[in-house]
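Two records follow; treat each independently.
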Amino acid sequence: MRKLIESTLVTLDGVIEAPERWALFDAESSAYSLEQLDDYEAFVMGRKTYETFYANWGHVTGNAYIDRINAMPKYVPSRSLAETTWNATLLGPDPSSAIAKLKSRPGKDLIKYGTTRFDATLIQDGLIDEFRFWYMPVVASSGQWLFEQVDTTGLDLRLTDEKRLQNGSVILTYVPR
């Protein structure tokens, strides 16, 4: 059975919005990010993340990381989109059931970048198997915060791994108890 892993870039003060402005990717962290993509078969993306990533990366070529993301299948929950491009499939009227069905299939794990409003549903339905918080040694002071507008009542996490990077970032891995 596949896992759904959520990986989120976070500043020291808990901001997750606009990581392109503050995320510190050196050679080591870039190589690690690319290596991690080998563990995943497909992306789960909230509608806004899908639209933002597609606008920024959907037509970019020549970057190994972005080329890999462009080639991967993507699954998107949306009540407003009628169709998708960029190897994406809409999850339909019951995204939780669709995610559960995807997880039950054999294959590599599913990855979701960022904490979005869709997390409220995923957490409530117990569909996220692992959280990876990539803490960057920066302070943003404003923007969307980690788990903003997401009910985390009853979410009890256990630290299972940590990885320190030379750029001062720390990746903390948690699983729900």
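The next record belongs to a different protein.
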Amino acid sequence: MPHSFNPQELPVIAVDDHLPSVDAEQLLPDALRRRFDAPPAWEPEIAVERRFNEREPTHASVLVPLILRDDELTVLLTQRTDHLTDHPGQISFPGGRAEPEDADATATALREAQEEIGLHARHIDVLGALPTYTTGTGFVVTPVVALIEPPFTIEADPFEVAEVFEVPLSFLMSPANHRHHAIEFGGVRREFLSMPWQGVDADGEPRRYFIWGATAAMLRNFYRFLSA
């Protein structure tokens, strides 16, 4: 993809407001536990992106942290710093590539969450994992979904993380907020989803958070898992 590519400048070609939202009762902690304990028959909608490079696939994990806030769950997300080599400036889940010492994909997600945002494993109640998602940059990512019960502290690594924020899970599990975009590059049409969230930054100022690409695709697969 060209470095000048700005996904927010592309037109919306479709909105999925014809699809039902996940019922509020299904977004409660006990219902989520039951869904992961006895998953339905389903398949991810988006599993592999078109590749942008030829490097060897790299295994990675992300933590999908569901925060217990009063009467609803929120999803904790990060904005990556602009100088990173992979996916600079994008909104993502805490996570990163697997290391030899990691016992499994969950261990990778827990280690990365502590390194990136200072979220200790004692606060993390893992529910389960979604199928892997392969990015155009060659990362084979396992999303590990977990409940996080406050109080907890966040100490973001300033080298990797520019900002940490939360979005209501109900917003992300409503396809009326899922937008489709497309771009042609190198003679190939590439499509992606976005889920723009109008939130408030750390200073209390209104801010639009443009959730797109791999993060939006994994959230879309989570929607398919919960609505199956």
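Discussion point: The chain has a mean pLDDT of 93. How would you locate this feature using only the token line?
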